[in-house]
Design goal:
Length: 194
């Protein structure tokens, strides 16, 4: 039995050796040739290009601009602080945010002067801003916004206006006061013709 195993093992070894020698006859092994340095560089570049194609490029984070430090500011209510501003039918009380934030934002209380004159007030316009929020402190205001229609906001109502949304004031209460916060502090208002 031991001879049978040995003979079987010899036959399998002989078959493997024969397979190796026949493949060696078909394609003799050649010694490996050294590749020039340029080929290695090309291979690396090709690999890098393939890797870049496979993986989407990561977006670089936006570079943050350094702003001067913001200052602490307090603004107490005083009627004498209301002054004329953007609109003739309104008085504005600056809350000091623009100066304290170095132009990052502006906040003011708007006191609409009654009675409302639609011929003067109802002019379609937009503000070239990054952010605008309005909160009704007193009274009510009715306005029309492009894509939203006519909306009446009452004391306690708050809304944001997307940048450059076309809108106009239609009517307001004689005692209407609004808190408005805008980014940035300096912006352009564009009047539109109907």
């Amino acid at each position: 039995m031991a001879r049978a195993r040995t003979a079987a093992t010899k036959k399998s070894v002989t078959r493997k050796t024969a397979a190796r020698s026949s493949s060696a006859k078909r394609s003799p092994r050649r010694p490996a040739l050294a590749k020039p340095a340029a080929d290695k560089t090309t291979a690396r570049k090709t690999a890098a290009v393939k890797a870049a194609v496979r993986k989407p490029a990561k977006a670089k984070p936006p570079v943050a601009t350094r702003r001067p430090p913001q200052r602490f500011v307090v603004s107490h209510h005083r009627d004498e602080d209301f002054a004329t501003g953007l609109r003739a039918y309104a008085q504005y009380r600056d809350l000091g945010i623009a100066a304290a934030s170095h132009g990052l934002a502006q906040a003011h209380v708007i006191r609409l002067i009654g009675p409302c004159d639609p011929a003067e007030v109802s002019k379609l316009h937009y503000h070239d801003v990054d952010f605008q929020m309005v909160y009704v402190l007193k009274g009510w205001v009715r306005a029309q916004f492009d894509g939203e229609g006519e909306i009446t906001m009452r004391e306690g109502s708050c809304w944001t206006q997307p940048p450059r949304i076309k809108h106009m004031i239609l009517d307001y209460a004689d005692n209407c006061e609004l808190l408005e916060i805008i980014l940035p502090a300096e912006f352009e208002t564009v009047e539109l013709t109907k």
